[in-house]
Design a protein that fits this description.
The protein has helices at about 10-25, 40-55, 70-75, 90-95, 115-125, 130-140, and strands spanning about 1-5, 30, 60-65, 85, 105. The chain contains six helices and five strands. The chain has a single domain, classed as 3-Layer(aba) Sandwich (Ribose 5-phosphate Isomerase B, Chain: A). By secondary structure, it is α/β, with parallel strands linked by helices. The radius of gyration is 14 Å and the shape is globular. The protein has a five-stranded parallel β-sheet, sandwiched between helices. The termini are far apart. Bound molecules: D-ribose.
């Protein structure tokens, strides 16, 4: 699986540790930055990561900012994106199993690398369960056209 990842200046260190976990999961990583501590605007990174997902260049995305909140809000404004901000392993598993989330958001100033790694493992190993959840996810996507 190919995954595009990007962060703002508030999550540089966590991005690097998430990339190590993704590599262990045999994921091909496309890192769109940021690469320095210079202040940048997280919506720009959300847009770039999500464009990779909606275009099919990558199957899924990971977006990170200081809290994960701003970048997840931005990501969810983009058609075709179901971004889940996760701070625990159960939510990460459910974001895939029930919501078929295609982008994971994490907070670099919120999570330690150990917990973030477990969240990433859960998100990238759990399959979507389909069934009744398919209908509900379909209704989420239909909201984009209302
Ligand atoms: C940047 O200082 C910070 O606002 C950003 O990383 C994020 O936490 C926003 O939600």
């Amino acid at each position: 699986m190919k995954v595009t990842i990007g962060c703002d200046h508030g999550a540089l260190a966590l991005k690097e540790s998430v990339k190590k976990v993704l590599a262990e999961l045999d994921v091909e990583i496309d890192d769109v930055g940021t690469y320095t501590e210079d202040s940048i605007d997280y919506p720009d990174i959300a847009e770039e990561v999500c464009a990779a997902v909606t275009s099919g260049k990558s199957e899924r995305g990971v977006v990170l900012c200081g809290t994960g909140i701003g970048i997840s809000i931005a990501a969810n404004k983009i058609k075709g994106i179901r971004c889940a901000l996760c701070g625990d392993v159960f939510s990460a598993r459910m974001a895939r199993a029930h919501n078929n989330a295609n982008v994971l958001a994490l907070g670099g100033r919120v999570l330690g690398s150990g917990l973030a790694g477990e969240i990433v493992r859960a998100f990238f190993t759990q399959e979507f369960e389909g069934g009744r959840h398919e209908r509900r996810v379909g209704k989420i996507m239909a909201l984009e056209n209302k």
